[in-house]
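INPUT
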Amino acid sequence: MGAVAIMSAGAGCAAAESIVERGHYLATAADCAGCHTANPDQPLAGGVVIATPLGTIVTPNITRDAATGIGGWSDEDFYRALHEGVGRSGENLYPAMPYAAFTRLRRDDVLAIKAYLWSLPPIRRPNAPDHWQFPFKDRRLVSLWKLLNFRAGEFRRDDARTDSWNRGAYLVEALGACGECHTPRNLTLGLKSHEDLAGGELDGWQAYNITPDPVGGIGDWSDAEIAAYLASGVTPRKAAAAGPMAGVVERSTSLLPAQDLADMVTYLRTIPALRSRTDAKSRFSWGVRKDEVIDLRGVENLDHPTGRTLYFGNCAGCHGADGGGTRDGAYPALVGNTIVGATRADNLILCVLGGVRRTVAGEHVEMPAFAAELNDVEIAALTNYVLLKYGDTIAFPVTPERVGALRAGAIPMLPIVWLLWGTVGGAMLILVGVLAVWLRRIALRT
Amino acid sequence: MSDQLSADIVVIGSGIVGSLAAHRLAAQGASVLILEAGPRVDRGRIVSNFRNSPRKSDFMSPYPFSSWAPHPVYQPVENNYLVQAGPYPYKAEYIRMVGGTTWHWAAQAWRVLPNDLRLKTLYGVGRDWPIDYETLEPWYARAEQALGVCGNAEDDQSGRGGGPFPPRSQGFPLPMLPWSPYTHAFAAKAAAAGFRFCDEPSARASQPYEGRPACCGMNNCTPICPIGAQYSGDAHATLAERAGARLIENAVAFQLERAGGGKIAAVHYQAPDGSKSRLAARSFIVAANGLETAKLLLLSEVANASDQVGRNLMDHTGTDLVMLTKDALWPGRGPVTQGSICSWRDGEFRRHHAAFRHSLKNAVPNAAVTARALREGLIGPDLDARIRHDAARYVRLATLLETLPLPTNRVTLGERKGPSGLPTLRIHYDVGDYVRAGAAVAEQDYDRLVTTFAAERLSEAGGWQNRHDIMGATIMGSDPANSVVDADCRTHDHENLFLATTGVIPAAGVVEPTLTAAALVLRMAELIGRTV
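OUTPUT
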């Protein structure tokens, strides 16, 4: 897909392009491949394993293969899936599929995506079973979830706003489903609609606040900087995409026309500016360049390396002895780096553990993984050194236990699960109590 | 001591060559044990050692010394692990550690020329290889893939001014690393004066490659690439372990035990505390470097029916040209070496004198020019000005000369014993008339280069330099009467004993032998894999 030029400019339908071309463009903007392509040789044939707090989902094959894919689906089936979150047999789809966003897609766009999928070769690849924790496999729970968190309805143009704003809103809120990661979730895992794009998480990664707040969000970024980030994955001296966002840039935003990115910026500028109480200044504004390598000489105990020793041994080669990176940003600075200046250190730890890799427009970026070289204590010491020197100290201290949890890929148990089990447990206790009293009465009577 | 097998295959040595063998065989399902004489040290520690070392130009100083697995030390005080019996001291350096000497090898990854393998037939000197270039070529391609080699497939590396050479079945896995302005400037002027200059292929990630980041031009390839863009053998040691091989650190092999029927039954090794262990296996691969492999064979009294073990020791013993050019050329950006003059790599002249190659060095010269200025007594602003002036104009070419396999150039067991009770090594080495004649021709090149660059020459000829390219001490050949291993790297004397080392190379050519050893070992591993 990466090599194919996107024909459309903007989310409005241009007359000259075919429905398949438009579908291709829309599928790119919606990043269907992000969840439905596990093996690049089998595009859109599913198989991506998504770990959630409630269990593990394996995404399905959405090629037009009749036996294992969605070849038998009618237009109406396909539209219902995206618009209402309902499968072909009327079953509720798990909301890992972001239909809360896709419900806003216009019907003709949904059918264009289907036309695009039908233009691709069918791939025979049977779907693998999900693994849910009890009782979340039960799709009736999804009905409850929908009742609380889902309203079906297509995007409605706001005539009081510009065309650019409307296109941007459609890209961000409908196609891009940005809120799926960037909006915080409530107790029942629904999106907190009044905190749109104020920061969420995925797979242990923090998806940062991208509201226009200058402290909590990206209000201090210029329009060009935001667009450059979406186009290339890098804005020097501000941020570089890692983790899941690196994939989003690779597969989706870097392939969109410049006008789309400008429209997204237009829209993002107008959503409510939000910050949390812990936000002191913007994520990219922490740290000063300072070279401590001379102080280090001859005083190190390499058998008990400090964070500073580990930094100069493992990191300074690329990020500089002074944390300044390279001038062109190819090897990013840690001074003024969003991942280092965030209020939580999880993304920083995950970058150290797993490295960073990104390929945009044929340009590869690779930071090596240190999971095999450094243990949890060392990574904690290293990230603490980096945080204190270049980051937001509110994220300090990182504990080895936190590093260990992220290394294991542990997904934290959610309050909803405790609540649910608490409720179930309480109900059981009451039931047992009632039963005991009832039995006792019977016993007494006889 | 039971004769239960410890593994299908025991590999002795976890450097690039041993680790490639272990990885290939483990990936094919064989059970593999790797013995490494030295410890495992991670890159961050080596970088820290380098930063803390006051001897930045001593490329061994970041690497820990292990009393149980000693390596030669020359600075600050020589440890005489290699006892030099003369007439020329063979001061080879190597690292005994997981990953081996490729931790600081500068990553030159050359192929030999087809004619290098037919030296005796074509020019009447030295020895022929028992295999030809066509046989080796597919394995070169695989070795380049394994190491992630970048280079220019359009270059004529034979220096004859023709089309792309030597022949390649596929391009380099990575595109050529862009030349620094220095390399460009030197190449242009040298080429105008008639020198045939070409890119040096190197196992350096010009783009991210298999988890390695792209080279960021730290100019620290020796003694340690701080980011791992330069290939080092620990990469395949780790891959071998992931494929199921087991690596035992600090395990010094000291005896290969014979069994009936000309086979090797087991290897004995000792730990730093002196405790000894025995490992029985179907096959044994000794990949313990060019000198240590010969040492283990000599200690064990195996594979030496030909009396050739330890003989035919070679290097690319060379001279160098150091000059201050008239114009500022600004060396020191990018990797420490990028290009070579190959005009004298091959030709009829090899009947009379050694072939050679001038490798253009690109190391930051500040330390060298500062030391020189200090010797002249400069201080203060004069010193600063001089450093700035000279550092921009300091040019060094290291010449690698082709040496011949002379039976009298040999390594033997020394009389002294180290703390582990194992003997040191004694080396007798002479450069020989063939090399001296080649150096005289190289000297004419130096004169021309000094003129071309309107330069002031800083070094005088005559000082031989070891290039640490240890070859020949376990020489390959088709005749069991005068060689140690056959074309498959199998010892003539023991059907289950293989040698995987640059030590098997029978004709040195003028290029660093690492990629050739890697190609040979991949070919050997395929063969062993088929039989295990």
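end of record. Residues 1-13 of chain A have pLDDT under 50 and may be disordered.
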